[in-house]
Amino acid sequence: MIVNQKKRGVNNYPGADTAPDTLPKLLLRDRQIWGERVAWRDKKNGIWEQYTWNDIYHKVKVVSLGLVAMGLQAGDRVCIVGDNHPEWFWAELAVHSARGIVAGLYPDSQPTELKHYLENSGSKFAVVQDQEQVDKLLRIKDSLPGLEKIVYWDEKGMRRYHDPILMEFKELIRLGEEYEGIHPGLFEDNVATGEGTDVHMIQYTSGTTGLPKGAVANYQRALAMQNQMQRFNPIYGTDEYLTVSQPGWGVEQGQGLIPSLLWGQKFNFPEESETIAQDLREVSPQQLLYPPRVWEQLVSTMLFNIGDSHPLKRALFGLFLPVGHKVADLAIEGRKINLFWRTLNAMAEWLVYRPLRDKHGYAKVRLAWTAGAMLSPDTVRFCRAIGLRLMQLYGATEGGTLAVHTENDFKFESVGKLLVGRTIRIAEDGEILADVDGACLGYYRNEEATQRLFQGGWYHSGDAGYIDEDGHLIYIDRLEDMRQLADGTRFSPQYIESRLKFSPYIRDAFCVAGEQRASIGAVINIDFDHVGHWAEKHKIPYTTYADLSQKPAVLQLILTEVGKVNRTLPPKMRVRSFVNLHKEFDPDEEELTRSRKLRRTFMESRYEALVEVIYGDKEEVVIEAEVMYRDGRKGKLTTNIRVVHVG
Questions:
Q1: Co-location of 144 and 277 in the same domain
Q2: How much of the chain is in helix, strand and coil states, percent to nearest 5?
Q3: What is the helix (H) or strand (E) element at residue 288, kind and residue range?
Q4: Which of 269-283, 576-590, 617-631 has the lowest mean pLDDT?
Q5: Are 156 and 190 part of one and the same domain?
Q6: What is the pLDDT of residue 61?
Q7: Partners of 81 in beta bridges
Q8: Has residue 633 got a pLDDT over 80?
Q9: Closest CA to 287 of 252, 247, 262, 261
């Protein structure tokens, strides 16, 4: 089956057909059009600092010329490591302006991971956030002869660092200002030579099955993808956006930076991860992007807070939530909402939904997005019921965006309809194949993997799915992650895991099974904050995460939550036994990727002995596991884990 979403109509924003073909050219255009208009806001020490388009132009220019003065040439690679701050994007646009290539890396990467990224990309310079990133790079710099300079923008704790490879961001700016005096007009000349076909980013995959690979992207692909997105869900110059996802992630670039440059959407930066909730309320954005894990945690927190609130509030919420579900279902089905349901929903909006959204900063959200992995239908349905129109983007780092929901065309079970101009085919084994026109240019320095990726002239997603009768794309799971029971029943572990994580007391889950198994088991991470609060409320003493996870009352609590999920699943897909793990899944121990996806094959190997116990007749097992601390030290953790069988 082949589905082709043919192009139709014209772009629905001014100047789309004549827009500049690179991001730096867009910046120069925006500066000419908007000049002193506020473009970006950054919160520091509780105060929002504002940057106009003129300010951004100046920052990007001097940083770019500073890098050129140090030897940056067209095609050179520069890695950027840090959280969402203006300096990250100034550096990105600065590198682009000199026709360099950016590799955006996860700030929580370990030194060995950073070494792989820098070796693979051949980065000449590294622009990093703070002392933590500097320390990691200094540990590996001797094994990276091609790395010439490390520039850091947060000076805290750096006073006693004197390695000649280090440079302050302020010093880079000063160098750029001096270089501009000697070479006036060079910045504009460099920008003018850029072309839409230029490679501008190496975007690293999550690496669920091995070392992350670098997908090569160019402006042409990035801008075309955003223009097509604009046809489905327009973004306006009056929109506010708070950037919270990994800056180097293609979806974050496409929903944050690029719309800012294309249409003037205001770009806002939170002070730090701990202040995001407050910063959201202050910004009150119209557009929002979270990966699935964050949405799951958000809904989990909402449900927990509601359950812990005043009895009257709990009663109102319990009374009106079914109304929200009913109205959302009718709207999605395209059915008329009669006066009775409209009236009830208006009351629910006034008494419950609006205050709840406002408390979390979502009062004005028009476009709420998730992308990167499967999101539980329970989470989506809850958000839609309270008036938060959560929608999905489906695609991949390598394949680009393939399908999206729209405000007027949504299905809980789907990931949307194909973007205009994209073509997909469903292979015999159920794999989703896509046209190569919207895909990346291949993997950087990995021709063999590139050939596999584009085998037969199609982009091979590795995902299982199908197209329904309404043209919606239904995503099932990664092909390699699909599992089968002894009786031949095939199931998606990720789907069951996503349903379990809807519980406010379950932070993560890992479902296990196999062709020799008659049922499904699960390894569960409790939500330490929520379960801890619950334990205190019920006067249950505990010391550590491991201690709390094995308390009989906590095991009973999780058993109740698993039972709730089981009632929504077909009998053969129900969880029949589980354990509460003594620790959280950790990317530093390679259990999760840096984008917080399960490394399923690794987990099955690591917890093989525990899985055997889940299916055995023992009620308890002693686990001795090696743990790695953030400073690189290793230790051992021993604990007793109880197996719970679900009736």
A1: no
A2: 40, 25, 35
A3: strand 287-290
A4: 617-631
A5: yes
A6: 98
A7: 105, 128
A8: no
A9: 252
Same domain, 158 and 264: no
- C-beta of residue 490 within 8 angstroms of C-beta of residue 479: no
- Measured between alpha carbons, how far is 525 from 501 in angstroms, rounded to an integer? 9
CB contact at 8 A, 555 and 580: yes
- Establish if 325 belongs to a structural domain: no
> pTM score, two decimals?
0.87
Helix (H) or strand (E) holding 512: strand 506-512
Q: What is the 3-state secondary structure (H, E, C) of 115-155?
A: HHHHHHHCCCEEEECCHHHHHHHHHHHHHCCCCCEEEECCC
Residue 352 is assigned to a structural domain of this protein: no
Strands 240-242 and 214-218, how do they pair? unpaired
Q: Do 385 and 443 fall into the same domain?
A: yes
Is residue 148 domain-shared with residue 178, that is, in the same domain?
Answer: yes
Contacts of 9 (CB under 8 A, 6+ apart): 231
State how far the Cα of 503 lies from the Cα of 554, in Å rounded to an integer. Answer: 13
Calpha distance 388→381 (Å, rounded): 10
The count of structural domains within the chain is 3
**Closest of 433, 96, 78, 445 to residue 253, by C-alpha:** 96
| Tally: H helices and E strands in the chain | 23, 28
- The domain of 626 spans 482-645
Q: Which of 587, 589, 594, 590 is nearest to 107 (CA)?
A: 594
* Together in a domain, 179 and 260: no
CATH for 539: 3.30.300.30
Q: How confident is the model at residue 8 (pLDDT cuts 50, 70, 90)?
A: very low
Q: Which of 57-66, 153-162, 308-317, 369-378 has the lowest mean pLDDT?
A: 369-378
CA–CA dist 269, 617 (Å, integer): 53
How far apart, in whole angstroms, are the C-alpha atoms of residue 63 and residue 421? 37
Is the Cβ–Cβ distance between 424 and 416 less than 8 Å? no
pLDDT digits (tens, 9 = 90+) for 155-204: 999 999 999 999 999 999 999 999 999 999 999 999 999 999 999 999 99
Q: What is the CATH number of the domain that holds 294?
A: 3.40.50.12780
What CA–CA distances, in Å, run from 129 to 364, 593, 629? 31, 21, 21
Residue 336, classified by CB atoms within 10 Å of its CB into exposed (0-12), middle (13-18) or buried (19+), is: exposed
In a domain, 160, yes or no: yes
Structure tokens at 475: 């995503």
Place of tokens 């120069």: 28
- Give the Cα separation of 60 and 68 in Å (integer): 12
Residues facing 105 on adjacent strands:
81
Give me the residues paired with residue 367 across strands.
287
Nearest CA among 122, 133, 129 for reference residue 100:
122
Amino acid at 498: S
Residue pair 430/476 in contact by the 8 Å Cβ criterion = yes
Instruction: Enter the tokens of residue 377.
Output: 């239908």
Q: Are residues 628 and 534 part of one domain?
A: yes
**Paired tokens of 288:** 């929002």
